[in-house]
Amino acid sequence: MKKKVTPLIEYFSEATTACLVTMVQGNLLSLTVGHLIIASQTGIFAGILSSFVIIFAKIERKEIIAILLGLSTAIVDFYMHPAMFGSFATEAIITGLAAAILSYLVATLIGLFSKKVAS
After folding, report:
1. How crowded is residue 23: how many other Cβ atoms within 10 Å of its Cβ?
2. What is the chain's alpha carbon radius of gyration, rounded to the nearest angstrom?
3. Are 16 and 35 within 8 A, CB to CB?
4. In whole angstroms, what is the distance from residue 38 CA to residue 31 CA?
5. What is the pLDDT of residue 4?
6. Are 14 and 106 in contact (CB under 8 A)?
7. What does the buried/exposed string (b/e) look like for 87-98 if buried means 16 or more CB atoms within 10 Å of the residue's CB?
8. Please, which of 15, 19, 53, 87 could form a disulfide with 46 given CB 3.0 to 4.6 Å?
9. CA distance 42 to 75
10. 68-79 CB burial, b ≥16 within 10 A, e <16
């Protein structure tokens, strides 16, 4: 069970963070509870969607996982709220890219830390 819940929490966190930062265009001082609620909703649905696909397809490569999380985050973000900047899909695309990059970086750091602890 832990093996299935831990990735869900990770994907939720990465998608939520990407959405939150993108919504306020990097200006963290303008964050509101409203932004956090919308970003959390996006994170929950993107995390569940990504977890479902990754677990049932038995995907283990961090590159593929990052791409899947990015795609699901972009799709969910597009349908969760209207774009705050750019065209109708610009924010969703940037949010998806941010989630993918964040996912890849976190997976890489976890891998490096695991190797360091093991040796």
Report:
1. 25
2. 14
3. no
4. 11
5. 66
6. yes
7. eeeebbbbbbeb
8. 15
9. 9
10. bbbbbbbbbbbe
Comparing C-alpha atoms, which of 64, 23, 63 is closest to residue 43? 23
For residue 47, what are its two tokens? 């995390």
Q: Which two tokens stand for residue 102?
A: 């964040």
1-6: Cβ within 8 A, 24+ apart? 4/51, 4/55
Q: What is the mean pLDDT of each run of 10 residues along the chain (119 residues)?
A: 77 92 90 93 94 90 95 94 84 94 92 78
Residues with Cβ < 8 Å from 27, sequence gap 6 or more?
none
Phi, psi of 36 (to 5 degrees): -65, -40
pTM of the full structure: 0.87
The token pair that represents 23 in the structure block: 């919504």
